[in-house]
Design a protein that fits this description.
Blueprint lengths: L11 H53 L3 H8 L4 E6 L5 E3 L7 E6 L12 E6 L1 H37 L1 H14 L15 H57 L6 H33 L2 E2 L2 E3 L1 H15 L4 E6 L4 E3 L1 H18 L5 E8 L3 E8 L33 H11 L3 E5 L7 E7 L10 E2 L21
Helix pairs in contact: 1-2, 1-3, 5-6, 6-9, 7-8, 8-9
Length: 472
């Protein structure tokens, strides 16, 4: 199931700019509101201080002013208005309505008749203070709007510069989609957010291109394998067809020995085709994930059994088996198949009078079987290629052995399915030395079977039937 994460919304640059402008707008509104509040508090405090000062001046001016009008001219200024209420109730001065602060002061006796029992009302002009407040708010709003516009413009171009690495990622992705592989961002710094993103982007591209290359190589290997397999099967099938047609066309009174020889050839070609099919089935099972049937396995006994078998088949060779190893938990049938393949290959590569030695050993973590022969050996350039599928070092060798170049590939796949390895060792003398390493493990509790995957770790488990067959 493919997981999809849908990315919604418009331009990232526009969204970030709008978000930043919104935050700045809220900040400016808060600053203006706080400024207006502070201005109101400060103006009220200043008004109270001014009224207190004018109150003291009113007591002083009341004694040296000849009439209320002179008193008012001396006590008033641009922001302070005053109104005098005489003892007889007469009021002199401007009205104090609309003031933001006012204070009533009773004048003390000063020897002037008009000031006796007179009361002065001092007030701060609300219109003047309101005009100042309005002008301040307008100036703050205009300044805020201009600052907001400049901030939005700077943010727009700043975000374009800040997000330029994302544009680079987009360009690289489009160039790769157009077929230009190998392009990378290569960030100068990977300790920043965009640097880490660019590095992760490059790692993803490396992984994708590596997977693509592996897929192409696997597809090419499968095509080559199918072609080689078809070519290998053609020979025994053609032989079976030719022999069958010859037998069908023989006269009833034909030589019995000739008929028996043809029947023997027919059986050999049939077995050869069967061995090739078995090898291909084993390779398919290993690729898909081979199910092993492990049990307590004695590698020493399996090696001795294979040595006794090939000694009967090749009496002209010196076959020896030595060493000892403890029991391990493995699939004995598959391990025997690996050993049979190694020993058979060694016998086929060794001329008459040669020697094939199987040595069993153990370390604290592995059990090993080493197969050494005195044959023609393996060239240095072919030490790894020999484990590939459909590879034969001598294409002109006798095909009656039934070999199709799959035996060592199957053997290595089986070894790796056990968590072990099959390798070709370097030798100073003639011949070749192959070593099978299998992990030395104790038997698990009640585990009836162990599922192993292909050597490359891919594929799903597949049921396999233990054939105990030896390969080429």
């Amino acid at each position: 199931m493919r997981l999809r994460r849908r990315i919604t919304g418009g331009s990232l640059q526009a969204r970030v700019t709008l978000a930043a402008v919104a935050v700045v707008t809220l900040a400016l509104v808060a600053i203006i509101a706080i400024g207006a509040t502070l201005f109101t508090v400060a103006s009220n405090q200043a008004a109270e201080a001014l009224l207190a000062d004018r109150e003291a001046l009113a007591q002083q001016y009341a004694g040296n002013s000849s009439n209320p009008e002179m008193f008012l001219r001396r006590i008033e200024n641009e922001s302070v208005r005053a109104r005098v209420r005489l003892a007889d109730g007469t009021e002199v001065g401007r009205p104090t309505r609309g003031s933001v602060a006012q204070r009533d002061v009773r004048l003390k006796g000063s020897g002037r008749s008009w000031s006796d029992d007179a009361e002065v009302t001092l007030a701060i002009d609300g219109d003047l203070l309101g005009e100042v407040r309005s002008r301040l708010l307008v100036d703050m709003v205009v300044t805020g709007v201009v600052a907001l516009a400049v901030t939005a413009l700077l943010l727009w171009f700043g975000m374009r510069y800040a997000l330029s690495p994302l544009d680079s990622m987009t360009s690289v992705a489009r160039s790769i989609a157009a077929g230009r592989r190998g392009t990378r961002l290569d960030p100068a710094r990977t300790d920043t957010e965009l640097g880490r993103t660019a590095a992760a982007f490059d790692d993803m591209l490396d992984s994708l291109e590596g997977a693509e290359a592996r897929q192409r190589a696997a597809q090419e290997q499968v095509r080559r394998f199918v072609a080689d397999a078809a070519h290998e099967l053609r020979t025994p099938v053609t032989g079976v067809q030719a022999i069958a047609e010859t037998l069908l066309q023989m006269r009833p009174d034909a030589d019995p020995e000739e008929r028996e020889e043809l029947l023997l050839l027919l059986v050999q070609e049939t077995r050869r085709a069967g061995r090739l099919v078995d090898d291909m089935v084993d390779m398919a099972r290993i690729d898909a994930g081979l199910t092993l049937q492990p049990s307590s396995t004695d590698l020493t006994a399996l090696a001795d059994e294979q040595c006794r078998r090939v000694a009967l088949l090749h009496p002209d060779l010196d076959i020896t088996c030595s060493g000892d190893a403890p029991l391990t938990w493995a699939d004995p049938g598959r391990v025997s198949q690996i050993l049979a393949n190694l020993v058979d290959n060694a016998c086929q590569a060794t001329p008459a009078g040669g020697r094939v030695a199987v040595a069993v050993s153990a370390t604290p973590t592995t059990v090993s079987a080493t197969v050494t022969d005195t044959g023609v050996g393996v060239p240095e350039a072919d030490r790894e290629r020999i484990f590939d599928r459909m590879v034969r070092l001598d294409v002109s060798r006798d095909r009656r052995s039934g070999g199709a170049g799959l035996g060592l590939a199957v053997a290595r796949g089986l070894a790796r399915s056990h968590g072990g390895e099959l390798s070709l060792l370097d030798t100073d003398g003639p011949g070749a030395t192959f070593r099978l390493d299998i992990p030395l493990t104790d038997a698990p509790g009640d585990t009836p079977a162990t599922e192993a995957t292909a050597p490359d770790g891919s594929g799903a488990p597949a049921d396999a039937e233990d054939t105990g067959r030896s390969g080429d």
